[in-house]
Design goal:
It is a single chain. The protein has 514 residues and is α+β, with helices and mostly antiparallel strands. It is built from 16 helices and twelve strands. α6 packs across α9 and α15 runs antiparallel to α16. It is elongated and about 105 Å long.
Length: 514
């Protein structure tokens, strides 16, 4: 057979398998008690995969005689569970197959299936199927054990004090971590399936009696409307269910920290867990939430308040410093004191580029160094980042391409961006900084004012699952300001934030008689 004929045969075979899979996965097609046919169907649907294991065993006369076919995917099941809780129990079964769910298998780990669409999904998800030639039902036994890394420390949200536990990629482990922290039957969990091929399980969790039912219903409705094909990640889901998918500001917070997810649940928010992704989604999320860390609630109130003040200063420097420097040195030079104007003009004299070009050049260099430090191995990234910044900064000044003041401005700006606790907001402020830089170069200080007005108007117009993104500043909520720019002492934080519109607004109560 030549290559052309072989290719056509493979194409026809693949098309036949796809047609068979589409037919079987449609509702209404049930298993018929024919072990040979069932084995052939599963082999064709899974493309004769080498990890698809079949074990056919003979049943005892008390179980009705005949044979049973056991099917599972090697590598995604616990082999000890298969041998001990499935194969051994089927061999010793003295009850007819319809009673195995109560008499033979563990009741909590077995389900009765009949339709092929459910059988294929269970088998691909790590279950073990038990079929017989004398009964039209199939037992699906939960023997799942996917490869997973152990629970580790967070990599992107570091903390000096408090818990240091991060989610891993297995959604069952993520839920167990939440259960361990919140030992309350009010923790509600709803399981959804997102993805037409991956069938990724998604868990929507909230605390009954605290979370707003309207927010919970909105989250579930948006997730149920998704039809994703291929890899499903929390970032992909967040980008599809958020209120403003084209906005540069994130309106859904992602976190890998268990304590942050627990704190969000206790505030009345909804936490979405995605199988295969260690980052949980927290909704609703306003702008102020992205500046709150786990250590804010483990450190003393005065230390947290001071740190939050530093974050505000860092935000202002990162957004306004380059644009303000360009505006004062190129457009509104009359606003500078004469000694400072002489100093900056003297340093720029003889340089081939105007200050705005110097700023853009240094921003480009900083971004290249940042990307290189992220992509290189960890042992090399620190060296490249430090040595690269020193060498490049010294070289461009000695070469007469950039003034020393511009090196200082861009360096302070780059460092200020990393005062933002959440990384996904850092890219947003870098983009805003670019608009500020260009506005300051073209219009001067007036350009900075107009971009600031546009920025505030944009933030006020955003929402996160119906919650104003600029809350509690707009609309103004005086009680929530106790945990906004500062963090008041614990006696003052008696009420839950009103951002998520919780049903139970009281966080704690004084003991009776005090």
């Amino acid at each position: 057979m030549n290559h052309t004929a072989l290719g056509e045969l493979l194409q026809v075979t693949e098309e036949a398998i796809e047609a068979l899979t589409a037919w079987l996965t449609a509702p209404g097609h049930r298993y018929q008690p024919d072990l040979g046919l069932a084995r052939e169907i599963l082999q064709n649907v899974f493309g004769k995969a080498p990890d698809l294991i079949f074990r056919q065993v003979d049943l005892l006369p008390a179980a009705g005689g005949g044979s049973a076919l056991i099917a599972y995917l090697d590598g995604v099941v616990d082999q000890n569970l298969v041998d001990r809780d499935v194969v051994a129990r089927v061999l010793a079964a003295s009850w007819p197959p319809p009673l195995w769910g109560e008499r033979v298998f563990w009741p909590g780990a077995v389900e009765q299936r009949q339709e092929w669409c459910d059988l294929i999904d269970d088998l691909a998800g790590g279950a073990t199927l038990v079929m017989t030639n004398q009964w039209s039902g199939v037992w699906s036994v939960d023997t799942t054990k996917f490869p997973a890394r152990a629970v580790e420390n967070p990599h992107t949200e570091l903390s000096v004090r408090g818990s240091d536990e991060a989610f891993n990629e297995v959604v069952a482990t993520q839920l167990a971590q939440l259960r361990h922290r919140i030992r309350d039957p009010g923790l509600r969990v709803q399981r959804l399936t997102v993805g037409t091929r991956q069938h990724a399980p998604v868990l929507v969790t909230h605390l009954a009696g605290i979370a707003n039912p309207d927010v919970v219903y909105d989250v579930i409705t948006r997730l149920q409307a998704l039809r994703l094909d291929g890899q499903v990640s929390s970032s992909q889901i967040a980008g599809l269910i958020r209120d403003h998918p084209w906005s540069i500001f994130p309106t859904i917070r992602t976190t890998e920290r268990v304590d942050l997810a627990v704190d969000a649940l206790l505030k009345g928010k909804v936490v979405v867990l995605v199988d295969g992704d260690p980052f949980a989604l927290v909704v609703p999320a306003v702008l102020a939430d992205f500046y709150m860390t786990a250590m804010d609630y483990t450190a003393p109130w005065y230390d947290t308040s001071f740190v939050r003040f530093i974050r505000i200063i860092g935000w202002a420097m990162g957004v306004y410093l380059p644009g303000l420097y360009i505006a004062l040195t190129e457009v509104n030079v009359n606003l500078l004191p004469p000694p400072l104007l002489i100093l900056t003009a003297g340093n720029h004299a003889g340089l081939p580029f105007p200050p705005v070009v110097e700023a853009l050049l240094m921003v480009f260099v900083i971004e290249v160094l940042r990307e290189a430090a992220l992509r290189l191995p960890q042992m090399l990234s620190v060296t490249i980042g430090t040595v690269g910044a020193i060498v490049v900064g010294t070289a461009v000044v000695k070469a007469g391409l950039v003034s020393p003041q511009m090196i200082i401005v861009i360096t302070l700006t780059a460092l200020s961006f990393y005062s933002v606790p959440v990384y996904e907001l850092t890219g947003t402020w870098r983009l805003v900084n670019f608009f500020m830089l260009m506005a300051g170069a073209v219009v001067g200080v007036y350009g900075l004012v107009w971009v600031s007005i546009w920025l505030v108007a944009s933030l006020i117009g955003l929402t996160s699952f119906g919650v104003p993104y600029f809350a509690p500043m707009a609309p103004f909520q005086a009680r929530d300001w106790r945990d906004l720019f500062i963090r008041a002492a614990w006696p003052a934080l008696r009420w839950r934030p009103s951002v998520a519109r919780p049903r139970d607004t009281q966080r704690w109560a004084r003991p009776s008689g005090t």
